[in-house]
Design goal:
Layout: H1 5-20, E1 23-26, H2 32-35, E2 36-43, E3 46-53, E4 55-56, E5 59-60, H3 63-84, H4 92-98, E6 104-105, H5 108-123, H6 133-139, H7 150-157, E7 165-168, E8 171-174, H8 187-199, E9 206-211, E10 214-219, E11 227-233, E12 236-246, E13 249-255, E14 260-263, E15 266-269, E16 284-291, H9 294-307, H10 309-318, E17 324-329, E18 334-336, E19 344-346
Antiparallel strand pairs: 1-11, 2-3, 3-9, 4-5, 6-8, 7-8, 9-10, 10-13, 11-12, 12-19, 13-16, 14-15, 16-17, 17-18
């Protein structure tokens, strides 16, 4: 084991996304510009990149076909945003959060997301919690420059908790009228997963998608090469700590360098500890999780960050859910789960 307001917000978000995005390339070193048709979007309040292989079985796929597949990917993301965004005023979750008496009739995709969120929350003993909307709004590290008062934090914390949400069949209602759902720690992973599920039905042979800090790779590359995914160094975001080799599946990263402000010589980042209501202080700077499930990878990267390396390894060894992880401690030490050791190359 090895150890204007909108403009300002857009600039801040761009910087945070640039810092968290993975570097990815093929192991063969082939240029992306020739091998892939690349599409870039700003959807779900983040930057999205889709790379689709130009050929199948040695024959070129037409530009119109690739453009159509990419357009469908864009539509999928817009549909997800219209359902789960806590910032989109037209979304189901926004209406649930804003209206005291609103009862949400969830579709199958929303219920699937809730099921994964509930499962990860339960298995991690609440280290991941999708009901922290009051706290994430209060901290709002993208715009705030000073921490909120302890009184306000405790008040917000009193309106958090999965026991304040009731799910009956397809109906979601609030037992605490002030509770707010925030799928920010799982939604982009689910989006990456749904993109790959769609692309698997097309003639695109292989490729990858990046939705914020979530990467999904699919299909078999010529020669069987794995994708080479560079994991950002949280202490020097212009560099990487190493490379993860992945044939298929998802990688999701959570880190204290993504969105934060500094006050009084201390960094206040966006990953909230559900038990304290404050940004997590676990001794970790970043966590990358590898999983066959995009939503689970996203939620787990948050949960493990909150846990800290030791508890994260204990959780891994319990085998309650299948995943691998690369964790970077605040002192720079790299900790790998045993199953990823042979698939991760630490940069010399």
């Amino acid at each position: 084991m090895l150890t204007s307001k909108y403009s300002k917000r857009l600039v801040s978000l761009l910087l945070s996304v640039i810092s968290v995005l993975f570097l990815f390339s093929s192991c063969s070193g082939a240029g992306d510009s020739g091998e892939y048709a690349e599409y870039n979007y700003f959807i779900m309040d983040t930057y999205v990149t889709i790379k689709l292989a130009r050929e199948k079985d040695g024959a070129a796929l037409g530009k119109d076909y690739l453009d159509s597949a990419a357009a469908q990917c864009s539509k999928i993301l817009v549909d997800i945003d219209s359902a789960i965004s806590s910032h989109n005023e037209n979304s189901d979750v926004y209406r649930l959060n804003s209206d005291y008496d609103y009862i949400l009739s969830a579709d199958d995709k929303m219920l699937s997301l809730l099921d994964t969120a509930e499962t990860v929350a339960e298995l991690t003993n609440g280290a991941y919690d999708y009901t922290l909307g009051c706290l994430t709004e209060l901290w709002d590290v993208t715009h705030n420059t000073t921490p909120p008062s302890e009184t306000k934090i405790n008040e917000a914390l009193s309106h958090c908790g999965r026991d304040k949400i009731k799910i009956t069949g397809k109906r979601i209602s609030k037992l605490d009228l002030s509770v707010k759902i925030d799928f920010g720690g799982i939604g982009k992973g689910m989006a990456a997963q749904q993109l790959l599920e769609y692309l698997d039905t097309t003639d695109v042979e292989y490729g990858l998608v990046s939705v914020g800090g979530n990467i999904g790779v699919f299909g078999k590359k010529p020669g069987g090469e794995d994708y080479k995914i560079g994991i950002r160094d949280p202490h020097d975001t212009s560099d990487v700590i190493g490379y993860c080799y992945l044939g298929s599946g998802f990688v999701s990263v959570s880190g204290d360098y993504e969105r934060y402000f500094e006050w009084g010589g201390k960094r206040y980042h966006h990953i909230i500890d559900p038990k304290t209501g404050y940004p997590a202080e676990s001794g970790l700077s970043s966590v990358a999780v590898v999983s066959s499930n995009g939503a689970a990878a996203d939620a787990l990267s948050t949960a493990l960050f909150v846990m800290g390396a030791d508890k994260a390894l204990e959780f891994y060894n319990e085998g309650k859910i299948s995943f691998e992880a690369v964790m970077v401690k605040s002192d720079g030490e790299i900790v790998l789960t045993p199953g990823i050791a042979e698939k991760f190359e630490i940069k010399k």
